[in-house]
Write a structure and sequence with these properties.
single chain; 236 residues; 4-stranded mixed beta sheet; 4-stranded antiparallel beta sheet; 6 helices
């Protein structure tokens, strides 16, 4: 753009010199009337075409810089903003509820259980280690698996003594809420469709399912808060 500005300056300077040369030549050749006032040395007369040319050139410069600004703005916008979204469209969603075990008639707080909110439309680039996210070895700090789930927009937490849990996830997305409760003895098999979903997140997935009973619930985070009431992990 500096080269264009230099060209514009050179053209304007040339036009002024040419107009000044014409004005000087005309004043030398013409015989002024006896009643005219002497021309001022501070006055420069310019032809009309020079003014029009400068106005046209200024319009071209303004249009060029305007288009350049649009190009720069488009290249620095995020994909969401280019799609018509604004930063205000993104929001967090608080998900709360209680993780319970038992049957439909009798519910007991799943003390020590773990809940995972996993997005249904995203998976990690490589399966995550299932260590540190089960009731038997839960590790909330310095846990790479939990950090990776948060990066995907999900969340992981251990439930409180009354089974209460609170999670913060990305808004406007679909999730599976997975409740994990430790059991003694053999754990029940996980349905194939849900096992395939878990394999997209964790390897070996048996680290998560072995010795645990799972509860599932779908939800969407379209609002600022979602109360799931009870996530039930059925016990025989």
């Amino acid at each position: 753009m500096d080269g264009f500005a230099k060209i514009y300056t050179a053209i304007c300077y040339h036009c002024i010199l040419r107009a000044h040369h014409k004005s000087t030549t005309s004043s030398l050749l013409a015989v002024p009337p006896s009643t005219s006032q002497p021309a001022s040395s501070d006055t420069i007369t310019l032809p009309r075409w020079t003014i029009h040319f400068q106005a046209l050139l200024l319009g071209v410069v303004a249009t060029t810089f305007f288009l350049f600004g649009i190009l720069v703005g488009s290249s620095t916008s995020s994909p969401g903003q280019l799609a018509g979204e604004t930063p205000g469209d993104a929001h967090d969603c608080r998900v709360s509820g209680r993780l319970m075990t038992g049957s439909n008639q009798i519910h007991t707080p799943a003390t020590g259980g773990v809940v995972l909110a996993l997005p249904r439309d995203r998976v990690p680039e490589a399966p995550l280690a299932a260590a540190g996210i089960t009731p038997g070895d839960f590790q909330p700090l310095d846990n790479q698996t939990i950090a990776a789930i948060h990066e995907l927009g999900g969340a992981v937490a251990r439930v409180q003594g009354d089974g209460q849990f609170d999670l913060i996830v990305d808004g406007n997305r679909g999730y599976f809420l997975l409740g994990v409760v430790k059991v003694t003895g053999a754990a029940p098999p996980v349905p194939d469709s849900k096992m395939q979903f878990l394999k997209g997140f964790f390897q070996p997935v048996q680290k998560l399912t072995s010795g645990s009973r799972l509860g599932w619930q779908k939800f969407r985070s379209d609002d600022d808060m979602v109360d799931l009431s009870v996530l039930l992990v059925e016990q025989p």
